[in-house]
Design brief:
Elements (H helix, E strand, L loop, with lengths): L3 H7 L13 E2 L19 E8 L2 E14 L2 E5 L4 E10 L2 E7 L5 E8 L4 E5 L2 H6 L7 E4 L2 E4 L5 H8 L7 E5 L2
Antiparallel strand pairs: 1-7, 2-3, 2-11, 3-4, 4-5, 5-6, 6-7, 7-8, 8-11, 9-10
Length: 172
């Protein structure tokens, strides 16, 4: 199975969401100052799980978050990425994921007491939703968030999310 973070970043839903890509932007929508170090209560190392036929299956590799400024450097066995968490309200967070020389990807996270439920913003799923923020555009199988897409727009998306298909569980 492919590396968890690789799928999470640029077509993380390859197996899970019918090979759809996730919402991306050419430049970051949020600056480091917008981020919050929200994982302190969870620890820094997580096991990753994927939902298959209604059953959570543990992936082989773990994910480690290391705080740097107001964001995290995330390492798994095969990749390293910058991750910025932006609080949206309630248990909802936005995860802005950046990798050198690539577009930024956006994922919603429902931060529960004992796990982080991951909601990839797959373009295929977004196309099916009514009342999308106007800052989202579609071209073929890709979808892009325009500059100016803010917390309010992502909060609207959070309210439209179905069941999570991935999760991170702290390793203690």
């Amino acid at each position: 199975m492919h590396n968890f973070l690789t799928r999470l970043i640029f077509c993380l839903a390859t197996a899970l969401l019918l090979q759809a890509c996730v919402l991306q932007s050419k430049t970051p929508l949020f600056a480091d100052a917008d981020g919050e170090l929200l994982l302190n209560d969870y620890g820094k190392t997580f096991a990753s799980y994927s939902l298959n036929a209604g059953v959570w299956e543990k992936e082989k590799d773990t994910v480690t978050f290391t705080a740097t400024g107001q964001h995290y450097v995330v390492k798994s066995e095969k990749s390293e990425n910058d991750v910025l968490f932006v609080r949206l309200g309630g248990t909802w967070l936005l995860m802005q994921v950046g990798e050198a020389d690539k577009d930024f990807a956006y994922v919603l996270v429902d931060a529960r007491r004992e796990e982080l439920l991951i909601h990839p913003l797959s373009c295929e799923t977004l196309k099916k939703l009514d009342g999308l923020p106007t800052q989202i555009s579609f071209e073929g199988d890709d979808c892009t968030a325009a500059t100016g897409m803010d917390r309010k727009a992502f909060t609207i998306l959070a309210g439209k999310m179905a069941k999570a298909e991935m999760k991170l569980v702290p390793e203690k």
